[in-house]
Design goal:
By secondary structure, the protein is α+β, with helices and mostly antiparallel strands. 22% of the residues lie in helices and 29% in strands. The strands form four sheets. It has a ten-stranded mixed sheet with strand order 2-1-17-4-7-15-11-10-9-13, covered by helices on one side. Strands 3-18-16 form a three-stranded antiparallel sheet. A three-stranded antiparallel sheet has the order 8-14-12, with no helix packed on it.
Length: 300
């Protein structure tokens, strides 16, 4: 059972886990762990899942999914979905998720369940997951990692039932983009028992952003089990850098599967929102709507 704090409802709630029985088998039984490690986590398997989710056959899943997970379709653009992936990357209607306009606010770039860590070292053990994160491995660049030592880490976990587009949390310039190939393990908390370093093993895309308010920020999209693809819609990785972006502009999206977005902020550049800090200290994720505040510049 996964419990989290819902910021809008202001209460602790229990998560409805998509494919819970299968995840428990895949990560909590010996045959499941063996098959997951040697087969299900491989990139080509998630690509096959992606092909099915792109096919007209997957359309039959949509209505049951909406009903089971009580998704309010009034919040999303009205359209006809020809397959499940089109539904999965549905867009909010204009005005449904406004971003805080204050330039001193670091906004939620994903609608997700958040954990935060106020001060990292070059290596940091996550007190919730017991994971030792080496920033050099995470970013695949030891020199850039040094710029984030003792900085702030924001971890946003997206469930399959969530909105799966991710956005820029402030305005600025994208100065670098790299892709790190890897595996596709689940990011569900149940999976960490079997694969405690999924963020260092999974496929991910790393962007270095530059903000006049928050300095350099690393934004990392992490693929997960069943994610057919991470798509950058705001730019091509081949585009000449820098690429200017606006606060709240869409950066990209995940095709089918649960996923994670990570932000690394330089030391002293961000004061995190109190509810995130307090809940994270209790090992409790906080669900935050897209566009709301995650923190502010220290002098705000």
């Amino acid at each position: 059972m996964i419990r989290y704090y819902h910021r809008t409802h202001q209460r602790v709630e229990t998560e409805q886990v998509y494919g819970e029985a299968w995840l428990n088998w895949a990560y909590r039984t010996l045959p499941g762990r063996l098959l997951t490690r040697h087969l299900f986590s491989k990139q080509w398997v998630s690509r096959i899942f992606g092909v099915f989710e792109d096919s007209p056959l997957s359309r039959s899943k949509i209505d049951d999914f909406i009903l089971k997970y009580r998704i309010d379709m009034e919040e999303f653009e009205t359209t006809v979905y020809s397959n499940f992936n089109q539904f999965f990357i549905r867009k909010f209607k204009d005005g449904k998720r406004p971003f805080v306009s204050d330039t001193g606010t670091f906004c939620a770039g994903a609608e997700a369940r958040y954990l935060v860590f106020e001060s990292l070292k070059s290596k940091q053990t996550f007190p919730v997951k017991g994971i030792e994160i080496d920033l050099g491995i995470l970013l695949q660049d030891a020199e850039i990692a040094k710029e984030f030592e003792c900085g702030t880490l924001i971890l946003a976990r997206l469930c399959p039932v969530d909105y799966h587009r991710f956005h820029f949390p402030f305005e600025g310039n994208l100065i670098r983009h790299t892709r790190v190939s890897g595996e596709y393990h689940s990011v569900n908390p149940a999976a960490f028992e079997a694969e405690p370093k999924v963020f260092l093993k999974n496929e991910r895309q790393v962007a270095i952003l530059e903000s006049p308010v928050f300095g350099k920020v690393a934004m990392i999209e992490v693929g997960a089990l069943g994610v057919g693809k991470i798509v950058q819609s705001a730019y091509s990785p081949l585009d000449a850098m820098p690429v200017k972006f606006a606060r709240g502009a869409e950066k990209g999206y995940f095709l089918f599967g649960g996923s994670t977005v990570i932000w690394l902020v330089q030391n002293g550049k961000l004061k995190l929102s109190r509810d995130l800090v307090e809940n994270s200290a209790r090992n409790l994720e906080t669900w935050v709507p897209l566009g709301q505040a995650l923190g502010e510049r220290p002098d705000a």
